[in-house]
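Hi Y.,

Following your request, here is the sequence exactly as I used it, all 199 residues.
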Amino acid sequence: MDWNSVTLLPWDLILEILGFTTGLLYIWWEYHADTRLWIVSMIMPFISVWLYLDKGLYADFAINIYYFLIAVYGYIVWSRHPGKKSENGLPIRHLTIPVAFCSLAGFIALWTLLYCVLEYLTDSTVPVADAFTTALSIVGMWLLAKKYIEQWIAWIAVDAVCVGLYIYKGIYLYATLYLIYTVIAFFGYFKWKRLMKQQ
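Below is the corresponding structure, written out as tokens. Let me know if you'd prefer a different format.
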């Protein structure tokens, strides 16, 4: 057998497959408001950083450091929240008006800042979309860590934009994953509404 003729899977495809499978597990546990989603969230950044860097998605690359830290925080908050007992420690709840306003303001500020960094300090070909998904993901992960039901609305927007962004960048498995995320985020909102009534 001529081992030189054996074609190995490209490293970026292996990372895509790993990211795709862990991403499905993550969204399944998020849909069910299961604390184990944070364990997967601690693993996923290590898979994604190399892929994003290779594809020139610099903001998505950088946000994975935040993803890891917020995953640790989210796990602690969900599983050990004092004084509010539910199946997973912290109950599902709605945003208050002040929190919603601060979240929106934070998103706009982050989007603007990230766009300027990507546009003027990198060779990014998609600064607007990359900055948008990154800024809204930062806010969305914080909303998820606090178990606000409106986090699903943020993810619907992020996931839908990511589908187009990843198709444009040729990351087709991730585009498929985010298409699945978009659909699940829509149904996830209503799932969490039902879970809120059962708490």
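Helices lie at 11-31, 37-54, 58-80, 97-121, 127-145, 151-169, 172-198.

Thanks again,
Q.
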